[in-house]
Amino acid sequence: MRWTIRILLFIICGQYVDDDVFGQTQALSVDKPHIPGVAESHLASLEAWRTGDMLIRYSTAGEGKLIADEVGEVIGPDALSLVVQEYYLSRFVFDFESERVLVIKRVEREERLFNALDEEIRQPVRTSGNRVMLYDKIANYELQRIHAGEIRRSEIKVPISGSIGCIGRMGVLDLRHLGCVEGINWDFDALREQVRFNNSVDNIEQITHIAKDVYRIVAKDLEMKRYRGRYVTDWDVQRNVPVRFESHHVPDSTNPVRITTVDWKSIDGLFVPESARMSRRSIATHADREFHLREETTVDVHWFSLNTELPAELFAEALIHDRKKLDEMLNTDVFEDPSKEDRKDK
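RE: above sequence
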């Protein structure tokens, strides 16, 4: 399993960092002033999500070495390796106009520790859990149940989105960020600000034509005041969607912190993410020790609806009491058998 993780990481990093994969640079036919319009069109499409019902499947495999402040990664007989696997499902139903949200989430995580001889040195640490949240601004209540516990009712105290919003608090991946920025919180204001910053005429350093209708935009925070790094976005200018994004926390770095690729499909004229692949570097803590982790993540999204009227029962309080129905709503058959529902043109 550990070699499988290494191979996956090599494939992702090699596939999306090596310029040869994209072919030779072609003549430029999109100039700087055109790019902000592409970004604005994409933001407008994302902002047009009014109602929706989706199932998100998120799977991560990671491996990393023990690090120490003085020496970086520890080598020799004291070296330790951490292997992490995480899997979760999220059913996310939203009505932004009436400020109603339903989130059903199931999480499984495993952490395994190995010594310098690749021998497992302790029992794997496994965690799992289920959470359900129903948020209704008009009715002024938020219902939550964690694991098999009792349902807790409270008055609305936080907004539906934003940095402290209920959606981000439930750990729902913000699909609108895919291909644009690193963030995960459901905060559209922050998303809009960074997308505009990364694609502003003043910050664009280079534009390269890398494939049919696809242009690579390299942007830097030249004054090192805001985002303090370099951002590379591949825009499909025919569909006005980002298909690849990489971030560097140091402007002149050649080693990205994160690489994301996204596949999109169209629903009634709006492009929505259908799948994504991410590789990233991060710091993980296990048994009070820190590890430099390299992770490979796969995201798949099944859209049941977008911008259509949602059944009232999806926001009914009775649903949160119906455990059988909640389990059914996390059924992953929709990923395994696409013929169950007509697929939209990408």
